[in-house]
Write a structure and sequence with these properties.
Keywords: Lyase. Its EC number is 4.2.1.118. By secondary structure, the protein is of the alpha/beta class. It has one domain: TIM Barrel (Alpha-Beta Barrel). 42% of the residues lie in helices and 15% in strands. Helix 1 links the parallel strand 1 and strand 2.
């Protein structure tokens, strides 16, 4: 597994990307997932690119952004092209977006068809620029439940479309993460890993709260201390050799939480592989 941290974690911090990269490398992360807003705001810093990041021993697996699927086609194409151009600068082959701004149950057949068509158009553009377009499993979108996500993949029907599997939000949508992972596996290209104290606390991940500097963070927990069973889920992921995953942390005490979660993941994998190294079947 190649583990990344997300620069969105530091959205309200006064830190440079160099500060983040040095810390990530020192704490055994393999990559940095760039928030689209951060990538755009560094466009003038021409020395910052994939080669610069590689000097820290890191890569940028994905740029995470929000394509305007509900705007006119020209605006969508411009945003998609610009996002893929930025991804190319950082050596990222994946760009992430959300599947609209409405829950699947509130979306009419006509609106679903329109959004799927827009996603397909964006996928064609992304493919032309060497990128894959990943739709994140997320509430309030057409990828808010397992069945709606599967239907979306079928409706778009394009090889450049993939899934960013947000384990917490899959669980939030009512599916068992392990079963959903197996069902979506052919389309999964990246994972977001985070946890919550209980279902009653899921409100803390609503965008209006997450992006607010004064938003509530109570209920956000370390990866192995919340309601989602990551011991079982990570056992599934460790079966695969080529996996890109990001620790997506929105709360306080960023450095300690990220360092401890990454360390615990390494210990869990080492413990799982110990019998194999010892020659035990």
């Amino acid at each position: 597994m190649r583990l990344s941290l997300c620069t969105i974690t530091f959205r309200h911090h006064l830190l440079s990307l160099e500060d983040i990269a040095r810390w990530a490398a020192a704490n055994d992360f393999q990559g940095i997932e760039l928030w689209g807003a951060h990538a755009r705001n560094m466009q003038h810093m021409t020395e910052r690119d994939a080669s610069w990041m590689a000097a820290f021993g890191l890569s940028v697996p994905m740029l995470s952004d929000y394509l305007p699927l509900d705007e006119d086609l020209a605006s969508l194409r411009h945003a998609t092209s610009n996002l893929c151009r930025l991804a190319g600068r950082w050596g990222a082959r994946k760009v992430r977006t959300f599947a609209g701004k409405s829950a699947s149950r509130d979306t009419s057949p006509e609106a679903r068809w329109r959004l799927s068509a827009r996603l397909k158009d964006a996928c064609m553009m992304a493919q032309d620029q060497g990128c894959q377009l990943l739709v994140e499993t997320h509430p309030g979108t057409l990828a808010d439940t397992l069945s709606s996500t599967q239907r979306l993949v079928e409706d778009v029907d394009h090889p450049a479309l993939g899934i960013n599997f947000d384990t917490l939000h899959v669980w939030e949508g009512g599916a068992d993460p392990v079963a959903a992972h197996r069902a979506l596996l052919p389309h999964i290209r990246h994972y977001h890993l985070k946890n919550v104290r209980s279902r009653a606390d899921l409100v803390v991940f609503e965008p209006a709260n997450v992006y607010a500097a004064a938003g509530k963070r109570t209920g956000m927990t370390a990866l192995f201390e919340g309601a989602v069973d990551y011991l079982q889920f990570l056992d599934e992921l460790f079966e695969r050799e080529e996996v890109d995953a990001s620790l997506e942390w929105f709360g306080g005490d960023c450095f300690n939480i990220l360092a401890n979660d990454a360390r615990n993941m390494r210990l869990l994998r080492a413990d799982r592989e110990a019998p194999i190294r010892a020659g035990v079947a």
